[in-house]
Structure formats: structure tokens, C-alpha cells
């Protein structure tokens, strides 16, 4: 419903990349001389993504003093640079102009290790796709040290027909319970494949979404010691998350966060639905 772009090449640059699979990350990176902000989201830059759908986004802000936040932004920038290796002279000139004015970003090497923020939250930027050495799903599981897993909770608008990605997560984590959050009216969840998961509950989010399309993606792993949350662009599909033997085909971007136990559901407003709602009959 919006007008076509009129200022590309004058007020901003547009660059294309070559992607083997679907190019699916949603990242906004803002940098200044001594500050920065990273936004990793499920939302596309569309009217429905920014103002219509039910989406989920995470923000990391660097204000010149927290090294962990700066590292997360640096990791995201390293990923973006890997996509811009053949961006062309004009965009390369803009990148160089930016880098000379952001010394804090220029001096940080990229890292794949999680960092601890000032509030004690453990976080990591996780990118997926053919350019990565490990899948998002494999890295996420590797960050969860505690056992046993009390519950695996997955919110995703799209799924594998055979629930392959969900099966890989379940086999790696062996949760006591699996809860799936869907909008049952969209009929995008493969109910027949769910019969192979005896501990699975499917919960309807229609009332929570209030008739908005639920486009958010999140995977929550609950243990006695902590909540482990993965959120961003990746649906619960093998193409997005990969499996134990498959790195995944899509380019994706997510944030991992380790938080105090039994806090994430209440923060997202999903506690009553997950803990009290009746499962949807399949």
C-alpha cells in the first residue's frame, strides 16, 4: 500500500546478494562514533511486518561502555560483511566511510562465543546458511548446558511437512514436554506428523494474536536453572534451523538469550496460554 522507492542511489543504497537458499534474515544495524544498536527480528520491512503482524524483535544497544553489547553488534556486522564481498565500488566506499568513524567497531574481532551483559544475561548472535560452519539449531543446542530439559516450547508460523527440525531438537534435548504455539485457523501446522510426538501439546494463539497474522518465531527451552530463548528470523524448519546432519539452506539471523528460570513466558505474555490453555485436538 506504500509508494514505490524514489530515492535509491541518492539518499540510500540498495545492494543485492547471491543466496543459495532463501535470503531470510531481518537485521537493522545502526552505528555511530561511540554508540550502536542491533535489532534482530522476525519482521520484514513491510507495512504488515512493522505495523500489522504479531512479530518478535530483540534489541542490543551499545552506549560506549558495555563491551559485551559491542561484541554482539560486531558479530552481526561481521555477518553482514560476509554478504557484501562483491557489493560494488559505491557501497564499499560507504562502508569504508562508516568504518573510519566507528573506531570501537573497527577494533573488535568477530567471535562465535556468547557474551554476558551487565544484567547477567548470556547472549549470542547466531547466523545460519551456507556460509556458516554450524547450523543455528546445532549452535543453540550446544549453548544449553543444563539437563534435564523440563519443556521445549516452539512458536513458528511455518513448519516442515514431516516436522524434521522439531524432531531434531527433540532428539537432541529429550524434553519432558513439548508445547507448540500456532494459529490453528491458518492450518499451516502438519497435524498428521505430530502423531509421532507422544509428549507434544498444540496450543492455539488466535486469541492472543487478536486476529493479527502471527509471524513471530521463538524457541524456548526451560530447565530448572534457566530459560534459553532463540528468536529472530528462523522458522522451525530444517531449511532455517538445520538438523544434526544438515546445515540448512536459508540465510537466517537470530539472537540467543539465557535468562532466569520461568521468566520468558511472562515477559512475552504467554504464561497463561502455555500453562493453562487446553491443547488443540489434532
Q: Taking all residues together, what is the mean pLDDT?
A: 92
For the biggest sheet, the summary is:
8 strands, mixed
Shape: globular
Proportion of residues in β-strands? 15-25%
Please tally the β strands and state the result: 11
Helix percent reads: 25-40%
Adjacency order of strands in the biggest sheet: 4-5-11-10-9-6-7-8
Radius of gyration over C-alpha positions, nearest whole angstrom: 19 Å
Unreliable stretches (pLDDT < 50, length at least 5) are none
Q: Helix tally?
A: 10
Q: Structural class, judged by helices and strands?
A: alpha+beta
SSE order: EEHEHHHEEHEHEEHEEHEHH
Termini separation comes to 37 Å
Task: Describe the model.
It is a single chain. This protein has 282 residues and is α+β, with helices and mostly antiparallel strands. Helices cover 26% and strands 21% of the residues. The strands form 2 sheets. It has an 8-stranded mixed sheet with strand order 4-5-11-10-9-6-7-8. The protein is globular and about 55 Å long.
